[in-house]
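Appendix B, example 12.
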Amino acid sequence: MCVRAPGRPARRPALRVPAGRGARGLWVGLLVGLAATAVLLLRRYGRALTARTTTAPAAVPAT
């Protein structure tokens, strides 16, 4: 329970780091999430490029 002085808002408890691994574990988790997002976006981009090149119309021969 937070005790507050008159005229001051109550303080919120500090952010707890999961599983007691400290700040290093928090940063590793954030970096792993960022890397996974990058991989998924690159896979989607590669598929879009492949789909675009395979469905391109054939060249019209000159008359």
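Residues 19-53 form one domain. Residues 22-54 form the longest helix (33 residues).
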